[in-house]
Write a structure and sequence with these properties.
Layout lengths: L36 H4 L28 H4 L37 E3 L8 H12 L14 E2 L5 E2 L10 H13 L10 H17 L14 H6 L3 H12 L8 H18 L15 H16 L6 H16 L37 H31 L5 H31 L3 H4 L7 H17 L1 H18 L15 H12 L5 E3 H13 L19
Antiparallel strand pairs: 1-4, 2-3
Helix pairs in contact: 3-16, 4-5, 4-7, 4-16, 5-8, 7-8, 7-9, 9-10, 9-11, 10-11, 11-12, 11-14, 14-15, 14-16
């Protein structure tokens, strides 16, 4: 793959001038030891063979603005914020007035948006690597790399404890599912069955009120993309395995209801989660939002308000803004005096992107499409109501309102996806942080699962670029590793596989139908040298 470059400058009071990024597949210079621990852990770590040679800076490269130590610590600038022990005052508090989520029996029929490719040798080798790494308890660990200590600094070395954790386990299970293995069929069904048992047992053990589902702390995933990433990944995997978990189905549904209830009770007015601190929390938000939509497709009864918040959060990511919540005014009290407005709900939708547009835009555009997919299912139901002459007036009114809501969302989504298609043709955008970390793999997955729905040239070009680059980056043992931030081989390998297997992403058949009809209705773009009707003649 063509070398890509994105320099990173970090200014400090000690006069440190910065570190430079290299290319898409290689690593960066060693972190500067003089930096404070909470800032140093924001920087990339070395590959086993040390830093690569640098290439000259291209005039096209656009470095981010120099950022001070104080700014790097600010969550609204992509920093980690003050270091707090898990379970501390920064944790989210549940709104117990929100009703528990129930999962029904109706599961949307799904299909692939494009014809899936056969599993490549690179994919098969990666799957074999992952399955070999399954632990005796059924879970997967980070696959090596640093962890966070109790004081917030990195703990590194050959003897660092590396127990199984839910986040990594879920990402592996998702990759195995994409490759065709469920708890009852496929080459790796035994590994899936054990992995699901591990996940469900942890959810059953978790308390019902907090947003955590695990007592394992200090993982790379938590530090880098959010304290609650495990819960969001669990919710996504439970939703995806709904109807595919064999004799664990009853326990899976109960676990899904538990994690869904946790999420909707902690969701803030702007679609975020208080206390979800991390380096690039926009990425855990993307997992959460996607999980809500996938759960709805598989039977969860999701309140329209929760999806509206997801849509608002996704739009704020694309636009790099955050919606403002306003308290609802209370009716006048005794004597006609208006009562004081209630406290505004905590705002947390402004998720950090670490200054990397790839993370934020990939999340926002992906989630916007996710919600529109859900709305398309609602639109299909609304059309059926309107086609029924016997439907009550109030139902017909709601159906009309839903169709109008979908129309507005579709128009905005068209713009979001058009902008995404332009961005992915920009090498500087695709470069992300400057080389591969788990954040890049996750961002590529978000983009792939968005572009594949429409197919066509944008998808073909993107998929070819991903295949070429990822196969080149694969290690001899079949794994992929990160060269900054999320470096663990488990997450990076699963992430790379999910990008390579994006053509096997399931979509509800109604969603695929609507996407194809929309594509067919779109006027064909003129070929090179041709003019639009009524436009200027092509130059000779």
């Amino acid at each position: 793959m063509k070398k890509l470059f994105r320099p990173l400058a970090v200014a400090t009071a000690l006069g440190v001038t910065g570190i430079a990024g290299t290319n898409f597949l290689l690593a960066q210079d060693k972190p500067i030891k003089a930096l404070p621990d909470d800032v140093r852990r924001l920087l990339p770590v070395d590959p086993p063979n040390g830093p690569p040679a640098k290439r000259p800076v291209s005039p096209a490269d656009e470095p981010p603005p120099v950022r001070s130590i104080d700014e790097l610590r600010r969550p609204d600038r992509g920093g980690l914020g003050p270091v707090r022990a898990p379970g501390g005052a920064a944790d989210s508090k549940p709104d117990t007035t929100v009703a528990p989520v129930k999962v029904g029996d109706v599961i949307a029929k799904t299909d692939f948006a494009v014809k899936p490719k056969d599993l490549s040798p690179a994919v098969k080798k990666g799957l074999e690597y992952l399955v070999k790494g399954q632990q005796d308890d059924g879970g997967w660990n980070q696959g090596g790399g640093w962890r966070n200590g109790t004081g917030g600094g990195r703990v590194e070395g050959a003897k660092v404890e590396d127990p199984s954790d839910i986040g990594n386990t879920c990402f592996v299970l998702l990759a195995l599912l994409r490759a065709g293995s469920t708890a009852t069929e496929g080459e790796y069904k035994d590994a899936v069955q054990k992995g699901l048992k591990y996940v469900i047992a942890r959810v059953e053990k978790a308390d019902k009120d907090s947003l955590y589902v695990t007592d394992v702390r200090g993982t790379q995933l938590q530090s880098k993309i959010g304290n609650y990433v495990d819960t969001f990944l669990v919710n996504l995997v439970l939703a995806e395995f709904r109807g595919k978990s064999g004799d664990q189905e009853k326990q899976l549904v109960a676990a899904l209801e538990k994690t869904m209830t946790k999420i909707v009770r902690h969701q803030t007015a702007d679609g975020g989660f208080a206390g979800n601190n991390g380096w690039a929390t926009t990425l855990s938000m993307g997992i959460c939002n996607k999980s809500l939509v996938r759960a709805k497709e598989r039977g969860a009864v999701v309140d329209d308000k929760a999806l509206a918040r997801v849509l608002a959060q996704a739009k704020s990511s694309v636009d790099n803004t955050a919606p403002v919540a306003a308290a609802d005014p209370k009716p006048a009290g005794p004597g006609g005096v208006a009562a004081a407005p209630p406290a505004v709900a905590a705002m947390a939708g402004k998720a950090g992107d670490a200054g990397v547009a790839l993370y934020r835009v990939g999340q926002g555009a992906g989630n916007y499409q996710d919600v529109v997919n859900s709305l398309r299912l609602d639109a299909e139901k609304a059309r059926k109501v309107l086609a029924d002459d016997k439907a009550p007036k109030d139902e017909r009114d709601r159906a009309e309102k839903k169709l109008e809501e979908v129309k507005v969302a579709e128009v905005q989504n068209d713009k979001v996806q058009a902008d995404l298609a332009k961005n992915v043709r920009n090498d500087n955008f695709v470069a992300g942080f400057g080389n591969n970390g788990g954040e890049e793999f996750l961002s590529f997955m978000n983009i792939s699962e968005t572009l594949v729905l429409l197919g066509g040239k944008d998808w073909d070009d993107w998929d070819a670029k991903m295949v070429k680059g990822l196969e080149k980056a694969q290690d001899k043992d079949g794994s992929w590793q990160g060269h900054h931030c999320i470096t663990g081989k488990t997450f990076c390998t699963a992430g790379a596989l999910l990008v390579l297997l994006a053509d096997r992403t399931p979509f509800p058949t109604e969603v695929i139908k609507a996407a194809r009809e929309k594509k067919e209705a779109k006027p064909a773009e003129p070929k090179t040298g041709e003019s639009q009707p009524g436009g200027p003649a092509p130059a000779k």
